Description:
four-stranded antiparallel sheet, mainly beta, single chain
Amino acid sequence: GDAGNIWYCNDVTLPTINWTNMSNGVIPTAFTDVQKVSGTNDFIATGIDGAVWKNTTGGVTNWQFKTSGTIENLNSIAVDIAGNGLIAATNGKLYKLTNAATTTPLLTNIPTGVAGKITDVAIQPSGTAAYATSSDGKVIFIPAYNAVTPTPFVITSYPQAVNGVAFKSSAAAAVVGNNALISNYFGTSSNVTKNLYTKDLRCINFYDVNNGFVIDSSHVIRRTIDGGNTWSVVLPWITNPTLNSIHATKTNQAILVGNSKFASVINNNAITPMPSPGVPGGTNFMDVNFNDPKSFGVIVGASTRAAQIVPTGPTTYAITSLGFAFTGPPAAFR
């Protein structure tokens, strides 16, 4: 079946046939997002076809597939140190995540009333508020994402797609979207910043309230040092490939990943590429995230590949190991 499931029945002649899942999902599907969970070694990742993966060994080996109860493509995940959070999915689906700090993460559907794809989610670093964005221009506010029954409601409707959201501080967040949309949010209030004359904005991440990075649809990176009021262009490395994610590691530094095993470190406004030893050519890196002390991070990509990245100096990083979320050759069961 789909998602690598193999089912077994020991007697097909019975009036009621009982099937047992013998595989618990072994097909390598594409990772879409990765987040730290708790401590320094726990990570959880989302993928296509409802795939949820859990890792407790630093993100490289022994990724465990978890049954999510959905076949929707999971686009983004946000989780707190207690193992609670949100997962964004296609078709307007938003899921409450619980037990992420254990070996049995649980997903519960939260009705949003939104028709478009939920593109991104972000939860308050120290609080209960959360935001979600959608491809049909909606910004969704959730006052208490960890409530028994969270109550999301649409606070803004833009005429263009909204592609990303990130908290800048414990109270302030920023969203980005098509037509160079960037807007600052404080609870249910917002103000649009109009100093960016770029193409569509896709991915945003902040180190603190002032320092952050954003990627546009032409794969140009911009950096802010004043909370998003002004932005400067980060000089590209020759020609940037398709860029998929960025993660700020210091006030003036970020890790950038993209297609064709592209991984680079940004220091101030300059990009330096990193070698990807052992990574097959053509592997697309989809997301990167770091543990709380920033002592190491995890890069995830196509075919459930996961790589560990560590700092080797104040301005340098290295990809030290590469693994799969399962053992065995890539395969699709039909």
